From TrEMBL, chain B:
<feature type="transmembrane region" description="Helical">
    <location>
        <begin position="52"/>
        <end position="76"/>
    </location>
</feature>
<keyword id="KW-0931">ER-Golgi transport</keyword>
<keyword id="KW-0256">Endoplasmic reticulum</keyword>
<feature type="transmembrane region" description="Helical">
    <location>
        <begin position="150"/>
        <end position="167"/>
    </location>
</feature>
<keyword id="KW-1133">Transmembrane helix</keyword>
<dbReference type="GO" id="GO:0046923">
    <property type="term" value="F:ER retention sequence binding"/>
</dbReference>
<feature type="transmembrane region" description="Helical">
    <location>
        <begin position="179"/>
        <end position="199"/>
    </location>
</feature>
<keyword id="KW-0653">Protein transport</keyword>
<dbReference type="GO" id="GO:0016192">
    <property type="term" value="P:vesicle-mediated transport"/>
</dbReference>
<feature type="transmembrane region" description="Helical">
    <location>
        <begin position="119"/>
        <end position="138"/>
    </location>
</feature>
<dbReference type="InterPro" id="IPR000133">
    <property type="entry name" value="ER_ret_rcpt"/>
</dbReference>
<dbReference type="GO" id="GO:0015031">
    <property type="term" value="P:protein transport"/>
</dbReference>
<dbReference type="GO" id="GO:0005789">
    <property type="term" value="C:endoplasmic reticulum membrane"/>
</dbReference>
<keyword id="KW-0472">Membrane</keyword>
<comment type="similarity">
    <text>Belongs to the ERD2 family.</text>
</comment>
<feature type="transmembrane region" description="Helical">
    <location>
        <begin position="97"/>
        <end position="113"/>
    </location>
</feature>
<protein>
    <recommendedName>
        <fullName>ER lumen protein-retaining receptor</fullName>
    </recommendedName>
</protein>
Length: 10, 212
């Protein structure tokens, strides 16, 4: 699941 | 972080410095689409709202603040300081054709129905097409100052470098972000025509001119 994932790319 | 992403981000930084250099040294924003620049401010502000909610790294935070600040500064240069050199009559791409579909796409494809995720997704889709008013303007005028083409080349290189970054991340971390990858491939594709002329003309020392 992608939930609560962090968007680390700019 | 891998070298593709790092150099991609450096290329993005370089593109912004080239653009600011072009505007301030020629004291003119001729040939630059205000609409594209306004879309980039929208992209950065909607995507980097997470500055206040999640911390990734110092690098990440500094870059986010830089992108928001520099894009706002470019709008200031175009709208205030060098306003007389900005010609809205050739910057005619209809923004509603870009923003509307991006809102719809973000509502369909996202990683969570909350404001932060929806705005993040919207910003990814919007970034993928934000360059269109600029490319449309280039197509219309049929030529560009060399410095402007260097700006576009650096911006395109940033996008192109994100592709090997995703391939690398897939093999090293098993990480795939389908929304970023899909939108990113579309975005990079938009530069292909430009890159063809850039490599065959500008880098051979000729002026950027499109066939009539």
């Amino acid at each position: 699941s992608h939930e609560h994932r962090e968007h680390d790319e700019l | 972080m891998n070298i593709f992403r790092f150099f991609g981000d450096l290329s993005h930084l370089a593109s912004i410095f080239i653009l600011i250099h072009k505007i301030t040294t020629t004291r003119s924003c001729r040939g630059i689409s205000f609409k594209t620049q306004a879309l980039y401010v929208t992209v950065f502000v909607t995507r980097y709202l997470d500055l206040f909610t999640s911390y990734v790294s110092l690098y990440n935070t500094v870059m986010k603040i830089f992108f928001i600040a520099s894009s706002c500064y470019i709008l200031y240069l175009m709208r205030v300081r060098y306003r007389p050199t900005n010609d809205p009559s050739i910057d005619t791409f209809r923004l509603e054709y870009l923003v509307g579909p991006c809102v719809v796409l973000a509502l369909i494809f996202n990683y969570g129905y909350n404001p932060t995720e929806l705005l993040w997704s919207f910003s990814i889709f919007l970034e993928s097409v934000a360059i269109l008013p600029q490319l449309f303007m280039l197509q219309r005028t049929g030529e560009a100052e060399t410095i402007t083409t260097h700006y576009l080349a650096a911006l395109g290189a940033y996008r192109a470098l994100y592709i090997p970054n995703w391939i690398y991340r897939y093999f090293s971390e098993g990480y795939v972000d389908p929304i970023s990858v899909t939108a990113g491939l579309v975005q990079t594709g938009l530069y292909l025509d430009f890159f063809y002329v850039y490599f065959t003309k500008v880098l051979q020392g000729q002026k950027f001119e499109l066939p009539a």
